[in-house]
Structure formats: C-alpha cells, structure tokens
Amino acid sequence: MADAGCLGEAGTAAASHLTPTSGLSPPLGWRERLRAGLAGTGASLWVVAGLGLLYALRVPLRLCENLAAGTSSLISGLIFIFEWWYFHKHGTSFIEQVSVSHLRPLMGGTESSISEPGSPSSNRESEPSRQNLSECKVWRNPLNLFRGAEYRRYTWVTGKEPLTYYDMNLSAQDHQTFFTCDTDILRPSDTVMQKAWRERNPPARIKAAYQALELNNDCATAYVLLAEEEATTIADAERLFKQALKAGETMYRRSQQCQHQSPQHEAQLRRDANVLVYTKRRLAMCARKLGRLREAVKIMRDLIKEFPPLTMLNIHENLLESLLELQAYADVQAVLAKYDDISLPKSAAICYTAALLKTRTVSDKFSPETASRRGLSTAEINAVEAIHRAVEFNPHVPKLLE
C-alpha cells in the first residue's frame, strides 16, 4: 500500500512537471506550423487550388461548352426579367418596340404603291403589290373593327386595350402608304394629314384632322380618320364616311383628268383611288353592321367589278360575311370558287367558310353509327379535310368562337 502510494505521488509529480505553466506556449511541430499557415492564408489558397484543378480537368469535363451554355442561360434570364419589368411598367414590349421602330425600317418595311386600274403600269405592279401587302397584318384582316365605335367601346367596358403596339404601328405605316403620296406637299391639308397618320396619340390625330378640315373642307382623308377614331357609334361613322365619299369622288374625278400630265399626277390618282375604295368598303361594313345586308352586298360587288386590282383590301371576304348572314349559300360557294386556292390558302375566313359549306352539305344525314359501319363517304372525307385545313391555317379561330 505504501509502495502504491509512493508510485501515485511520483506519477502526480511527473504529470505536474510536464504540464505547461500558465501563459507559456509549447514549441510547435512541423505539422502544427503547416496547419497554422494554411489557416492564415484563408480561402484564397483554396480558391487558387480549385481553379488549378478545374484548369487541369477542363478537357475531360468539357467545361468550355458548359460555361458557354451557362452564360447564355444567364443572359437569357436577365433579358427575360428586364422584358417582364418593362412590360409591367409601360404595358408594351421593349423588344417589340425596338424591332418595329428601328429594325423593320432598316430591313425594308411593307411599302408598295397600288396601280390605278387601267393604267399602263397596273399589270407590272399589281402582282408585286399584292405580294408585299399580303405580308401586312392589318390589311390581311378584312374584318378589322372601327377604332372609335368598337375598339374604344371594348376599352370602356373591359378597361383593356384590344390593339397592341405592333398593331398600331403597322396600321400607321399602312395608312401612310395607302393615303399619302409625293404631291401632298402641294396641298396644305394633305401635308397636315401626312403628320396626322404618323401621330401615335389618338387625340393628336383627331386634332390634326380638324386642322386639315379648316384648311380644306373637302379633305377626304380627314373625314376618314374622324370616322375611324372619333365616331363612337356605327351611325356616326357612317355619316362621316359619307362625307369622305363625297369629297373623295370629287378628288378622284379631278385626278383622272390630270393623270397623264406627269408621274406625280399618276401617283395622286392612285392615292385618290385608294381613298375612294377604302371609303366605299367601310360604308359597306357600316351598312352590314346596321342591318342593311343587301345594300352592303351591292356595294361590295360593285367595288370588286370596278377595282379588281385592289384585292389587298380583301373585299371578297367582307362579301362572304354578308352573304353568310343572308344565308345565300349558293352565292357564297360562287365567291369561294373564284377566290379559294386549295394549294395556297389565303385567309382563315376563306378556309373556315369552305369548311362550313362542306360540313353543312353532309351534317343533316350524317350518322356516327352508319359511318363506323360503312366508312366515310367522299363528301364527308372532303368536309373533314376542309376542317383540318382550316385549323392548320389558323388554330385560334375555334377558341375565339367558343
């Protein structure tokens, strides 16, 4: 027991002798010094080591391709966020504004001149003009509504703008092409109307139209602008279009008498013909909307006979609309036989009207049970193909009809 106690005391003494005194540090070994050095350099050394490792493994890991893909994805995400913010703040697309306002003019916008029927250049220019104007979104829609009497009413009811910035910009460009010419500088009222068609603010356009009428009470294009944008009812629009028609017929007769004097007079005649045809077409649309269907049909038929080259207005599609409302299906079929090209469909109105007529001929006698037993007849197959053709041309029409 005494030996054990001595050994315990000796161990305690030895332990107390090896224990460092408070305030002193024991000498560090090489491992401790290395660890302390690494901790002192911080994360920078690890970053350098990681970059070196990535550089060494860049080929097997194909980091260049992945980095390029990641960078493009990041840029795309930033563009998307900016576009969303801009649209949320301004209500329009920044990319769309840049492309329409700056890029489209540089690439050559949709501009062409319309030949007056019977002129020497009509045969040469009619086909290129139709090709260029067929790319125009506004004229490709023959059922476009009146801005004041219908679009603005939609805005009042829903609080939403039915026309996009792209629609408005295209419309302004088309109005300038259709209703202006080089000789406008010779007449102060037409000079004012040139500025009016370029105005983006509707009140500014309306104010300019009134200024043109103060300079010339027979300015047809000023009445056209007021009928389109200021009139709040179809009846008001019709009244203004009748004034535009009276002034337009006078200007057209004067232009016919002077058309051979110079190329400028020929251009003026084309412009006056455009104004006259546009006004008559809109009067026909007013008559249809006011219930005078037969009057609308007569105006459109007369226009097609008198001005056959001016097909970019698609008057025949307005005629189809009126004939369908009259339930004159034989006349509808006659119009389709003239304008419907199966190999190259021209519009959704023609495609869906053709499908409607073909479906109507087989719908009364169609029976799913009978068709499942004997198969589809030739007429039924033609109807199905016409429906598929229409949906392929414009799949959004059925959703709008719902």
TrEMBL record:
Family matches, as PANTHER family: SUPPRESSION OF TUMORIGENICITY 7 (PTHR12745), SUPPRESSOR OF TUMORIGENICITY 7 PROTEIN-LIKE (PTHR12745:SF4)
Family per similarity comment: Belongs to the ST7 family.
Annotated TM spans: 34-55, 67-87
Protein name as catalogued: Suppressor of tumorigenicity 7 protein-like
Biased composition (Low complexity): 109-123
Region (Disordered): 109-133
Top-level division of the source organism's lineage: Eukaryota
UniProt subcellular location: Membrane
Membrane topology reported for the UniProt record: Multi-pass membrane protein
Annotated InterPro entries: ST7, TPR-like_helical_dom_sf
Presence of the UniProt keyword Transcription in the record: no
UniProt xrefs under Pfam families: ST7
A single Gene Ontology CC term: membrane
Keywords: Membrane, Transmembrane, Transmembrane helix
